[in-house]
Design brief:
Layout lengths: L1 H25 L1 E3 L2 E3 L19 E4 L7 E2 L5 E3 L2 E3 L5 E7 L2 E8 L14 E5 L3 E5 L33 E9 L2 E2 L5 E3 L2 E6 L2 E8 L19 E5 L7 E9 L5 E3 L4 E4 L2 E4 L3
Antiparallel strand pairs: 1-19, 2-18, 3-17, 4-7, 5-6, 6-17, 7-16, 8-11, 8-17, 9-10, 9-16, 11-14, 12-13, 14-15, 19-20
């Protein structure tokens, strides 16, 4: 009989504990925000191929998406730098940029004189392109640097003649009506699969001959590719315009436990 009482009491206690744990687990936090449904897109077959919402700036066939590109040549599926920098016809604010590039081979020159170019966001803020494979230069001027502002976290260069990939995530600067800076630009960048810039806050534009500064400009701007006198090759260039997630606070946050709802007061 004692043994049965013990079994019954232990079982009952276990049931109470289990029921309490279930009630705790059943409690749900709801933030009260009504979100707009995210758009459905078709991703590329590989990470380098454009998703369905991308703007294709160069697909290996024509230069119609670029201004001032008459002296730039198409060789195979690559766009080869010619005389004068070029800018995209399309303009962007916040965006994701994919671009592949290759340094000249055989390698010639040293330091900044070796396959020098640049990817310019809004045609003002430079992510450096340079053959930094076994080629020393100042650190905030090597491949993957925000020019004259920060070096990359690592040097992820491939050998001259091999293809490098930049995947860039850009947050454009915002300005107040009086021209003052409302919020700075930020950039995250991946070079050949390695993170090289982690939400870096830009100090302004990226000139060679003066400190960086912000001056009010249009909300959107083109992608620029620099001519620095070197035959750098580019291919597979596409951009995804980015828009903030949309939602409205329909009610205060609350906890739901079954039919009971408890508002969370801040």
């Amino acid at each position: 009989m004692k043994r049965m009482h013990c079994w019954f009491g232990c079982t009952l206690a276990w049931l109470f504990v289990t029921a309490g744990a279930y009630q705790t687990m059943a409690q749900e936090y709801l933030n009260g925000i009504e979100w707009k449904e995210p758009a459905i897109i078709t991703p590329g077959a590989t990470n380098s191929e454009p998703p369905s919402d991308a703007v294709i700036l160069f697909n290996g066939k024509d230069k119609s998406h670029w201004k001032n590109a008459d002296t730039w040549k198409i060789e195979g599926d690559a766009l080869v730098a010619g005389r004068g920098s070029i800018t995209s016809v399309d303009e962007f604010e916040d965006c994701q940029v994919h671009i592949e590039w290759s340094a000249a081979t055989p390698a010639k020159g040293s330091g900044q004189g070796r396959s020098n170019s640049g990817v310019f966001l809004m045609n003002k803020y430079e992510l450096q392109v340079l053959d930094s494979y076994d080629n020393k230069t100042y650190h905030d001027g090597q491949a993957g640097a925000i020019y004259k502002q920060t070096p990359p976290l690592v040097n992820a260069m491939r050998k001259p003649g091999e293809w490098n990939t930049y995947d860039i995530f850009w947050t454009a600067p915002r300005f107040n009506d009086d021209g003052s800076l409302k919020s700075p630009a930020y950039i995250t960048a991946v070079h050949n699969g390695a993170l090289i810039l982690n939400h870096f806050e830009l100090k302004g534009d990226t000139p060679f001959n003066r400190p960086p500064e912000y001056k009010k400009h249009a909300a959107k701007g083109p992608i620029g590719l620099q001519d620095h006198g070197d035959p750098v090759r580019f291919r597979n260039i596409w951009v995804r315009p980015l828009s903030p997630v949309e939602g409205k606070q329909a009610r205060k946050p609350f906890l739901r436990n079954g039919d009971k709802e408890t508002p969370i007061e801040k």
